[in-house]
Design a protein that fits this description.
Layout lengths: L12 E5 L3 H12 L5 E4 L2 H5 L7 E7 L7 H8 L7 E5 L4 H9 L4 E4 L4 H33 L3 H11 L4 H7 L5 H15 L4 H12 L7 H10 L1
Helix pairs in contact: 5-10, 6-8, 7-8
Length: 226
C-alpha cells in the first residue's frame, strides 16, 4: 500500500524498493499490521528522488532490480542521506553482503524473511533514525547558540573549555581585567544556556573541537548549514 508523498504523518514511513509488485504489496501489508505506513517503489532511481524526504524512517531495498541495483542505490545514498537501509535479497552471497554493510546497510536479510524478524529489524531501524535525527536537531540548536556569541565571547569560551581561570583568560587576551572576563563569561553561559563548565563542555565539546581535534568554527558552520 502506497502512502501519498504529500501526506503528513507522525509515524515514520517505511520505503519499500522492489521490482516485484507482489513482494511490495506483501511487505506493505505485513508492516501495516503493526501500524507502520509504507511507500512503495518499483525501481531504485524513483526512490532515490525521494530518499531525502524527512517523513521516511527507513528503507527496505531489494538487491536485484532492473537498472540501478540495490547495492548501487546504497552507494548513492551514502553520499547524501543517513536513512537506515535494510537489504532484502533472494540471491545473497558473501560478497554482496560485505558490500552492503560497507556501503552503510543496517541489516542484510534473505528472502523469504521471517515476519517477526523483519518487523523487529524495521522497528529498530526507525528507532535509531529518530534518535539520530533528534541528536542532529540538538546539535543544530547548539550551533545556532554559539553563532550568537561575539568574537570576544568566543575567545573567552575557548579559554573556559581549556580550563583557564578568569585571570589566565584575561592575560591571554592582552591584559583584560578579570572582572571584564567575568562579564564576558556570564554572557557566554547565558547565551549557551549552560549552568556549569561541565554542562558546557558536555553539550558543546564536539562543536568546539574539544573532541576529535576539529575546528569549532568549522563545525558550527557545518551544523548551521545542515
Amino acid at each position: 500500500m502506497n502512502t501519498p508523498q504529500n501526506l503528513q504523518t507522525a509515524t515514520p514511513i517505511v520505503a519499500i524498493v522492489d521490482d516485484d509488485e507482489a513482494v511490495r504489496d506483501g511487505l506493505a501489508l505485513l508492516l501495516r499490521t503493526v501500524g507502520l505506513p509504507t511507500r512503495c517503489y518499483a525501481d531504485a532511481a524513483t526512490f532515490l528522488a525521494d530518499a531525502d524526504d524527512s517523513a521516511l524512517g527507513c528503507a527496505l531495498v531489494d538487491v536485484r532490480m532492473p537498472g540501478m541495483s540495490g547495492l548501487d542505490l546504497l552507494d548513492r545514498m551514502s553520499e547524501r542521506t543517513h536513512l537506515p537501509v535494510i537489504v532484502l535479497t533472494g540471491h545473497g552471497n558473501v560478497d554482496s553482503c560485505r558490500r552492503a554493510f560497507k556501503s552503510g546497510a543496517l541489516d542484510f536479510l534473505r528472502k523469504p524473511v521471517d515476519d517477526d524478524e523483519l518487523i523487529g529489524v524495521v522497528q529498530e531501524a526507525i528507532r535509531r533514525h529518530e534518535q539520530s535525527r533528534d541528536c542532529d536537531d540538538a546539535m543544530h540548536e547548539r550551533a545556532a547558540r554559539i553563532a550568537t556569541l561575539s568574537a570576544r565571547e568566543r575567545e573567552v569560551l575557548d579559554g573556559i573549555v581549556r580550563g583557564l581561570s578568569n585571570k589566565e583568560i584575561a592575560r591571554d587576551l592582552g591584559g583584560l581585567s578579570p572582572r571584564t572576563v567575568e562579564t564576558y563569561r556570564a554572557n557566554v553561559f547565558d547565551k549557551l544556556q549552560a549552568s556549569s563548565v561541565v554542562e558546557l563542555v558536555r553539550d558543546y565539546a564536539i562543536l568546539l573541537g574539544v573532541i576529535g581535534g576539529g575546528s569549532g568554527a568549522l563545525d558550527v558552520g557545518r551544523w548551521l548549514a545542515a
